[in-house]
Specification:
The protein is of the alpha/beta class. It has 13 helices and 15 strands. The protein binds magnesium ion.
Amino acid sequence: MKTSRRNFVKTLGAAAVAVSLPGPVTSKAPGIITPKSGRLKLSFWKYNLKLRHTFTVAEYSRNSTPDVLCKIEYEGYTGYGEASLPPYLGETQDSVVKFLSKVDLSQFNDPFRREEILDYVANIAEHNRAAKASVDIALHDLVGKMLNQPLYRIWGLSKEKTPYTSFTIGIDKPDVVKMKTKEAAGFRVLKVKLGRGNDKEMINAVRSVTDVPLYVDVNQGWTDRKKALDMIYWLKEQGVIFVEQPLPKERIDDMAWLTAHSPLPTMADEAFQRLPDVARFKDVYSGINIKLMKSTGLFEAKKMITVARALDMKVMMGCMTETSCAVSAAAQLSPLVDWADLDGNLLITNDVYEGVKVVDGKLVLNDLPGIGIKPV
Ligand code: MG
């Protein structure tokens, strides 16, 4: 009995030795990334986006978009961010630089404390949404790179669920519209800008070239709700899927009436900015167009999607004219939305990053960590 017990203990000991000697160690066990002595370092620079075509919507035309690019560095990792500044949103390169100059990230030594860091940034000054978005995007990129995973994976999303993206056709004369529509032959859905009095001419020009589904963006260009409703009925017959910002953003009651009667979903864009707007627009619009430059970045955009879903509202992800930096960041969330209009990087000729691709009209996420970009 004694012997067999000793043999048993001996056997156990041998087993323990066998387990503890598995051969050469080939990989480190995963561990928690702990904050080191390093500090977060923010830097930023102005950049002008050159537009492929003169961009015309209901309110204005332009050939370039001012932009500010930024990066956050920490312990050998670099996260990239961007603030795109189309004139109608009210921020400028100077206002962004002024805001970012006040952001002192050197007080933080742990980029994983996103809640705390972004709360600090949010409270530096009111407004400055695009400037705040640039920090938010860079911080998300940084954390993704430290974890060596794309954000969509960190969030538990399936990359196959990215939607098709629309390509935008601006307001122009019929022959130009036809040419642009032909150029966009690779897209499975187009977004047509309306609201300058030639709506049927615009749609007819597009329809003379293609029969793909259309999104329509009126950019607040219609004023009469009954005429708007008639037009929406006509648009439905032309294969339009939804109508974005048909009336001026202040016209809440008229908009609620239009949404209640409309045969197509109505989407809030100019009227919709921040998280509290989502619940406020339940029954005013069918859904919301989320853009990182309005939402102050990914952190709030993700919350917006959650709230909109709880309220049974439609969600689309949009963008400004942007480099592949901000567009790729938005694309990381796109498996969660109904519709995407993430063509901003395709509208410029001087992109400085490579990121999300459009293949056969669909957004295709890569496996690069963070927001999925590399400088070119
Ligand atoms: Mg819009």
